[in-house]
């Protein structure tokens, strides 16, 4: 049985560590907030960041508060005997609503009006620029938890929803599911292309020059996956040349997005700081996952969301 679970201070980038500690006060292991240099006595660690010092600590289990775990060295963890779990399955609603917000902003011009507000500028878009989402289509690339959350909300807004999935089986709220090999053909018809795949060797650079060139000139690319799923240089070029109509980006190859990135100055780009999954309930969702896996360990069951 576990004796002490550490809550790494890095989770403070997403929620107050104290909030998670207090939410777990009902479990048997001691729960305390720790730093990288203060892991002594911890059997398990709940963290956002990764540090090689984790391999040297006497940890049995690490839980990532994000679904993405590309920063963790799977082979090293496995050889050290550390189990890794993640938080997949809890972000579909928050990310889905963020994506709906992006699409509504582009459809209704809300980001332009917000920009004008700072200058007290009363200026409508040209009469033929606004549109309604019910007239448009969206292609969701990746139909896991995030993609299904996007699809459900797009469907509720009356959009024509198609999706791309390695195994093209039917998915609720998605009219047609296409295999990954038909990606370029599928994105070519959509007004919005939403990328929600996890970052793996297979998906790194998935959206590049060829895929962007296949998209409509008025299409908007939305990336809520990981920065390296998208060739950012190719995207900048596509935006500057008018190959596509715009982008909404929550993730980037380098985070924070460097101050000299041309993306900051583009009127047809919405930049958010890796915040698509943010919600005041985040820590409670993590607490539920951690509490369930403590129970499973005590009962000798396999851990939920096990990665390694």
Automatic annotation (TrEMBL):
The keyword Oxidoreductase applies. CDD domains: 2-Hacid_dh_1. It comes from the Archaea. Keywords: NAD, Oxidoreductase. The keyword GTP-binding does not apply. GO terms for molecular function: NAD binding; oxidoreductase activity, acting on the CH-OH group of donors, NAD or NADP as acceptor. InterPro entries: D-isomer_2_OHA_DH_cat_dom, D-isomer_DH_CS, D-isomer_DH_NAD-bd, Dhydh_Halo, NAD(P)-bd_dom_sf. Residues 41-307 form the D-isomer specific 2-hydroxyacid dehydrogenase catalytic domain. Pfam families: 2-Hacid_dh (PF00389), 2-Hacid_dh_C (PF02826). Residues 101-276 form the D-isomer specific 2-hydroxyacid dehydrogenase NAD-binding domain. Belongs to the D-isomer specific 2-hydroxyacid dehydrogenase family. NCBIfam families: Dhydh_Halo. This is D-2-hydroxyacid dehydrogenase. It comes from Natronomonas aquatica.
